[in-house]
Design a protein that fits this description.
Blueprint lengths: L10 H14 L4 H9 L25 E6 L11 E6 L3 H5 L6 E2 L2 H7 L6 H4 L1 H18 L3 E8 L2 E9 L4 H14 L4 H7 L12 E2 L6 E5 L1 E4 L2 E7 L2 H9 L4 E5 L7 H6 L2 E4 L7 H9 L3 E3 L5 E3 L4 E4 L2 E4 L3 E5 L4 E4 L4 E2 L6 H12 L3 E5 L3 H9 L5 E5 L1 H4 L5 H9 L3 H26 L4 E4 L13 H11 L3 H10 L12 H6 L1 H16 L7 E5 L5 H22 L6 E6 L2 H5 L1 H4 L5 E4 L1 H9 L7 H9 L16 H15 L4 E4 L7 H10 L3 E4 L4 H15 L1
Parallel strand pairs: 9-10, 10-11, 11-12, 19-20, 19-26, 20-21, 21-22, 22-23, 23-24, 24-25, 25-26
Antiparallel strand pairs: 1-2, 1-4, 2-3, 4-5, 6-18, 7-17, 8-12, 9-16, 13-14, 14-15, 16-17
Helix pairs in contact: 7-8, 7-12, 8-12, 12-28, 13-16, 15-16, 15-17, 16-20, 20-21, 27-28
Length: 691
């Protein structure tokens, strides 16, 4: 029916048809989604393995199963798996039958009645356990194994390094190092840095009330709340709208992969802990509850029935992938405690890495979070975020809409104590660690009022008419503001803005017992003279404050390299700047000529067609943008050998980009607070691979 012709009867035609089907599957929609999610290049291609078949459906002395040499959810050194008597392998992984436990201990813990393989087939199980030990010792890693028992005889079908949760990866790596199977350095290399993201987010509050609807199998740990959706396309669409969803299915299939990625969690009525939903969810870091057999799912009516209750699409549920519980409504969460195996591995990672890891933060809370995650300073403090505070936005707008320097200074005088308080709070949290502060960067239009009442507030504060302000706002309009009047161009035309910010920084620094070393960063520099002018403003403000306070502190003035011209002229710019921080978000935009805010609609097609290996705003375009970074690094160090070099774009938390930074010899990377542990581990792995 699929081909429109009879199924071939010739065995060779069948074989080559199967081989061709595997090769052609590389270009299927789900394969493209999988490659995109796992950063697999499209030009690799698949491999085909041809082997003789054995049968697990030859009666009660036959069986098939999937097993792991250690628990892939927790990392516990105990055999973990499932099997089915009188079945083929697809019956286990497809989730169409709920399988039985591999070991007696697991069966008894779960309170299940069907006999485990250890009890029902003791001879085959004993042989299987020997194979487990042999394979794990040989490969020195936890193995994911498929096997068949045909009329009492054990056959091994395949083995591979098993997918595991971040928690399990940490425990397995640390345990194997303790067992002498691997070294500490190998343990550091074993853990996927991005998998740590699973550990850095909230879990359910154990003391919070729970309206438990049912319980399934704890297939992938973690917890999530969201609206019920019954198909992958709806999950993806609602996620794109900013909604949190839980994908509820009878069982998942490879065609659901895009919806599983979009969902906060996955719930299935059928399947075991090695079914498709469980394995994919663990790999993605999504919580998953599978095999919740009491669920009655009506896809046509978009209704879920359980325990005499009915829930519709859009209703909120919570799943706990660590216990298997499914709850009505949202349940409060707690922040994780990163101790134990996590702490041990991070100590080993910190000992191995060369680059420092900083954080992008501009509030005391973000700064403290970053420190708690091991940040060694702040690599990007975006001062404009402070301006959006409701208590000061009117003064900011008054400053922007003033038509002369005098009017701007009146507003800036109101902002000075607020900025000083902001910087003092951050310096205090960072306790002497370096803090890189970027002076005002975005185009002024982002701060302009839009509603009538906003114009009225500014008019009252400034003592001018609303129509005058509207005319001034119209004068400030730009057709392409991201390439317009922003960055150091603001400092050139309105030097009093940067003067106020510099004064606030130095006054805050001088007020603390432990004096910080501020690194003042001038954004969007394209010429040596721009940086020179801005440095004169900063230096003059510093001298005024030091004279007033009777106290001097150290500080650095540097720049953000985010324009191709700045990278190409880095030798001249380094004559003035003591440090470079590569702002790779804008450097990627200005090099590729692509707007990050608008690119999502077409970049996915570029990646699918192999035009880019990955989204260049997620993982650095090493071939293009990377060349500019290398040029700037070489030229900058030629002029100033001790220049400090870092990266503060979103790429600072991407392991592949961090690998490039290590090879290029940058001094540090800076990432968002929750990505600091990821960056620490990725930097260690890069150092080990390139050292």
């Amino acid at each position: 029916a699929e081909w429109g012709k009879p199924f071939p009867q010739d065995v060779n035609e069948q074989l080559w048809g199967a081989v061709g089907a595997v090769f052609s599957s590389w270009e299927s929609d789900r394969a493209k989604v999988y490659r995109r999610l796992n950063s697999i290049p499209g030009d690799w291609g698949p491999a085909v393995n041809v082997q003789a078949m054995v049968f697990g459906n030859m009666g009660d002395t036959s069986a098939t199963g999937v097993a792991f040499t250690r628990d892939p959810a927790t990392g516990e050194n105990a055999y973990y798996g499932e099997y089915l008597i009188n079945a083929q392998g697809e019956d286990v992984v497809a989730g169409i039958r709920t399988p039985q436990y591999l070991t007696k201990a697991a069966r008894e813990t779960a309170g299940a009645k069907p006999l485990s393989m250890e009890e029902a087939m003791p001879e085959a199980y004993a042989e299987l356990a020997d194979v487990f030990r042999t394979l794990e010792t040989h490969y020195r890693d936890m193995q994911d194994i498929e096997f068949t028992v045909e009329r009492g005889k054990l056959w091994m079908l395949q083995t591979r390094s098993g997918k595991r949760t971040a928690k399990a990866a940490l425990k397995i790596a640390v345990d194997m190092a303790a067992e002498g199977l691997i070294t500490k350095e190998e343990a550091v290399l074993r853990v996927d840095p991005m998998a740590l993201d699973q550990l850095l987010h909230p879990t359910l509050d154990p003391d919070a009330p729970r309206d438990v609807l049912t319980k399934g199998l704890p297939a992938s740990p973690g917890a999530a709340s969201g609206q019920i959706v019954f198909d992958a396309d709806t999950a993806e669409r609602r996620n794109d709208m900013g909604e949190s969803v839980i994908l509820v299915r009878v069982e998942t299939s490879p065609e659901d992969i895009h919806g599983m990625h979009a969902a906060k969690g996955i719930l299935t009525a059928r399947g075991g802990m090695t079914s498709h939903a469980a394995v994919v969810a663990r790999g993605m870091g999504r919580p998953c509850v599978s095999g919740a057999g009491s669920l009655a799912i009506d896809n046509a009516a978009k209704v879920l029935r359980v325990s005499g209750r009915e829930l519709k699409e859009g209703d909120i549920i919570t799943i706990d992938g660590s216990t298997g519980e499914v709850m009505a409504g949202a349940v409060p969460t707690l922040q994780p405690e990163l101790v134990g195996d996590f702490g041990t591995l991070m100590v080993w990672a910190d000992a191995a890495r060369r680059m420092k890891v900083r954080a992008n933060a501009e509030t005391p809370l973000d700064a403290q979070t970053a420190r708690d995650f091991g940040a060694e300073g702040i690599g990007l403090c975006r001062t404009e975020h402070m301006f959006f505070d409701a208590a000061r936005i009117t003064a900011v707008r008054q400053m922007i809409l003033a038509d002369d320097e005098k009017g701007r200074r009146v507003a800036l005088d109101r902002l000075l104590p607020e900025q000083r308080k902001d910087f003092a709070a951050i310096f205090e949290v960072m306790a002497g660690l370096p803090v890189t502060i970027r002076l005002l960067d975005p185009p002024l239009h982002e701060f302009l009022p839009h509603r009538e009442e906003e114009f009225a507030e500014v008019a009252e504060a400034a003592g001018v008419g609303i129509e005058t302000l509207k005319q001034r706002a119209n004068e400030l309009h730009e057709f392409n503001p991201m390439l317009g009047h922003r960055g150091c161009r603001l400092g050139v035309t309105y030097p009093e803005i940067y003067e106020m910010q510099a004064r606030a920084i130095f006054e805050a620094a001088c007020s603390l017992a432990v004096a910080p070393v501020p690194e003042i960063m001038i954004p969007l520099v394209g010429t040596r003279r721009e940086l020179e002018l801005m440095k004169e403003i900063v230096d003059k403000a510093a001298e005024k404050v030091f004279t007033e306070q009777g106290k001097r502190i150290e500080y650095l003035v540097g720049t953000m390299i985010e324009l191709p011209r700045a990278a190409l002229m880095a030798d001249e710019i380094a004559e003035v700047g003591a440090f470079f921080s590569f702002g790779t978000n804008d450097l990627t935009q200005t090099t590729l000529g692509v707007s990050r805010d608008d690119a999502a609609r077409f970049l996915i097609h570029y990646v699918d067609k192999g035009l880019y290996r990955s989204d260049p705003f997620v993982s650095l375009d090493v071939e293009g943008v990377g060349q500019l970074i290398e040029i700037a690094t070489t030229k900058g160090r030629k002029t100033r050998p001790d220049i400090k070099l870092g990266i503060c774009g979103e790429h600072g938390g991407d392991p592949a980009s961090i690998e490039f930074c290590e090879k290029t010899g940058l001094d540090y990377v800076s990432a968002s607070p929750y990505r600091v542990p990821i960056a620490r581990l990725a930097a260690a792995q890069a150092a080990l691979r390139n050292g």
